[in-house]
User: What shape does this take?
Amino acid sequence: GDRGQDHDEL
Amino acid sequence: MNAFRLAGDITHLISILVLLLKIYATKSCSGISLKTQELYAVVFLARYLDLFTDFISVYNSVMKVVFILSSVAIVWCMRRHRAVKRSYDKELDTFRHYYLVGACFVFALLVHEKFTFQEVFWAFSIYLEAVAIIPQLVLLQRSGNVDNLTGQYVFFLGAYRALYILNWIYRYFTEAKFSRWIACISGLVQTALYADFFYYYFLSWKNNAKLNLPA
Assistant: This one.
């Protein structure tokens, strides 16, 4: 499913 | 991952470690705002709630743990360490930072990417990081004390801001769906507040340099 905005930035 | 972001993460981490080492080595935290350091610790704790749920990379997970530990270590040092806490400017560091926490949390409830627990706390941490330097800015305006705010600390903190803005510009031009408006706009506010801090830091540093002229 849509995990939304994956926050790959710290 | 691009070079700007990697360099930005590393300079950000270095700025925290430089401050922690300075406080631990001199056993003094005069001129340092405990409230700003508490806000930074809350920023990392609120932002890295996904530490155990979303695995992005070893680098990402390791850096999250290091950021949390180092920021909490600074707060612990300033609150618990006998020698250090004696040098804390308790009567000058009086900015009501709880208002910043409340305002950012309410704002995160209104403006976020998705109305889920993690997303609201993520947005909250982004907004809080932007304003976290305000207690330190106020303390610096009042005390003009830069003894423990070393040039390296200020330099690495500024480098982190500049590199992250370059990172967002780079990602905007190289990624199709780059839409991190919350992080970008909040990051610009954070950089503007940092510039204000830098201005007062430079003034204080100049005045202290004059004061310390050889008699």
Notes: Residues 8 and 49 of chain B are 21 Å apart (CA to CA). DSSP finds nine helices and no strands in chain B. The mean pLDDT of chain B is 96.
